[in-house]
TrEMBL record:
This is DUF488 domain-containing protein. It comes from bioreactor metagenome.
Length: 119
């Protein structure tokens, strides 16, 4: 299965395959037409409490990562949606965070890559 990460502010490309927004909130300054999102899967994003406690602080990364992995393990429906979609081709996990490393989409991709290996 092929999962790719891309910021919502980057241009779309044919190689993106199915574009799925994995943020709980719609990204600022982006129109729905301009984003070209195929599916907005809000429920796969970190809980509001976890997102607010992390606040994109690299010093809190390890704790955030562990807690978000736990949330994902207990959230089988949206995880299953992503895994099933990826069976049909590339899935681009679209996110709005500025930092390309310290963001939930990286943790989500890590989780999905591990889950797809187990299937």
């Amino acid at each position: 299965m092929n999962f790719v990460l891309k910021r919502v502010y980057e241009p779309c490309s044919p190689e993106d395959g199915t574009r799925i927004l994995v943020d709980r909130l719609w990204p600022r300054g982006v129109s729905k037409d301009g984003a070209r999102i195929d599916l907005w899967l809000k429920e796969i994003a970190p809980s509001p409490e976890l997102r607010k406690s992390f606040c994109h602080d690299p010093a809190k990364w390890d704790t955030f990562r562990s807690m978000y992995l736990e949330e994902l393990a207990g959230n089988p429906v949206p995880v299953g949606t992503l895994l099933e979609t990826a069976r049909h081709g590339t899935v681009t996990l679209v996110y709005g965070a500025k930092d390309p490393f310290y963001n939930h989409a990286n943790v989500l991709k890590e989780f999905l890559d591990g889950s797809s290996e187990q299937r």
